[in-house]
Sequence to fold (147 residues):
Amino acid sequence: MANSIKRPADGLALQITRPARQAGLVEEDSEGTATYLATVRVHAVDGLLIIVDVDELTDEEEADIVATAIQDTGSVYTSVEVSVGISGNGYQVQVSNAPDAGLREGDTPSVTIAPGVILLGNEQAGNGSPQRLAADLATIRRDQLPR
Fold:
């Protein structure tokens, strides 16, 4: 993803148009008009933001993913609940807790996608590999889905 964290008038945000579509956080009609914008929780741990569609995941599924991240990193910070919003010709999400994960304005996080989940990694984090953890959490999410 080539998008970096920006500071619009209402705090830090990240343009997530393509990942939001791929993860199912937005739905559009045949004309490209948004028909569903997810309410999400954005959880922060060292090196990673975990964006979860609260309508798509059960509380238990979300807790499993977040607890795994907490255990792996030995950290937990603020979680915020926001809605995916329309921004220009795409979608964005507020990430006011990005600094907790070590992400700042101008940073371009790595992106990992699973159904109902977007994982934003800070590759500069000194706690191991956020990209590896994001891949592990995406696998957990895929394993939660009915087969």
Summary: Helices lie at 17-23, 59-73, 130-144. The chain has a mean pLDDT of 93. The longest helix spans residues 59-73. The two ends are 29 Å apart (CA to CA).
